[in-house]
Amino acid sequence: EQMAEKITDQLPEKDGEGGVFRTDMLKRIADLCVSQQNFHLATKKYTQAGMKDKAMDALLKSGDTEKIIFFAGVLRSKEIYVRAANFLQTLNWHSEPEIMKKIIDFYSKARAYQQLAMFYDACSQVEIDEYRDYDKALGALKESKKFLQKAEKPSTDLDKRIQMVETFVHAKSLVRKDNDEFQKMCFQLLDQPKVDAAVQVGDVFALLIEFYYSENNHEQAYQMIEKMRQRRIVLGPYLDQQMVDTIYRHMGISLATDDDAVDEDIANMSGED
Prior knowledge:
Helix 4 (52-62) packs parallel to helix 6 (78-88). It is built from 15 helices and no strands. By secondary structure, it is mainly α.
């Protein structure tokens, strides 16, 4: 690094007659740094050579999140903002609010509306898959639609997903308030084609089963569990095992495990051969 800095100090000024030579030498030094995996020094030399894209290339290879964020903020280039945001999306952003904010900030500053729409879409999926938070997922989907419209892209498929998530959120709000309507809405969702593109089907079943269980309607709860099984939905992620055991005990039926269902599928496949 000291050698690189000494060479740099001896180079002609960039605005003088030797400007081209200076740029070429800085690039050579930076290329050498990259080959030696000294990405931070490479970034510095590419930057001094006026090669912002190559500087970002080197910095991204370093994986230094803090410096990538700082670099993008200093350069204020649309392309750099987008590349920095793309990199940040490879991190565990959904558990780090500051990273999430930076992704949104960089895409917004770059006016990269389509990427922003896709990111909000990804946010909604995380809220559903990891947290079962359909209210937050709905908010993220609506943000996604807003930026899709800014990007002048069609939102037909997204509109359908928003409608289905809205239906589920509304159905959940009606439990204990309008039980008939809540059940009707859930059954309509279960009959919707491609409903799993918007909501976890297991969550819809779980809402119904938990309701029937709370009403001591074990027969209806049992029927819903069996429908889950018919759809090859694993019960574990959605239903409390003690509740399931209680429902089957009240029905006088022994409970087959999810492993048994898998074994049965394998046996059926073997029989087909």
